Amino acid sequence: LLQELAEMIKDFSLCGLGRTSPNTVLSTLKYFQDEYQTHVKDKKCTAGICKDLIEYSILEDKCTGCGACLKLCPQQAIKGEPKTPHTIDPNKCIRCGVCRDVCPFEAIMVK
Q1: Residue ranges of the domains in the chain?
Q2: Which of 7, 22, 51, 53 could be a cystine partner for 95, CB 3.0 to 4.6 Å?
Q3: CA–CA distance from 49 to each of 3, 25, 41, 71, 99 (Å)?
């Protein structure tokens, strides 16, 4: 559908800009069709950068319960006791990535 729309815009535009603007979409569809499908159909971002399509979680086997992520989370979405693995509430998490940036044990994972 996106490809058809881009081709129609290209074919029926009255100016040069209109005829060339769909080229980026057509090119990325040609070379990255699987990624488009994953985003649209599966609602996932394999690159882990589209905030609305990712979720952060804490790897229990790596989390030492140091509290670095818990202290800096702007939404207080991380819970846990000292020296025990913490958890992230996906309903509170705004996917800012602060937890991942400050974790010294690389225990924060994007899925």
Answers
A1: 2-31, 51-110
A2: 51
A3: 23, 19, 17, 23, 15
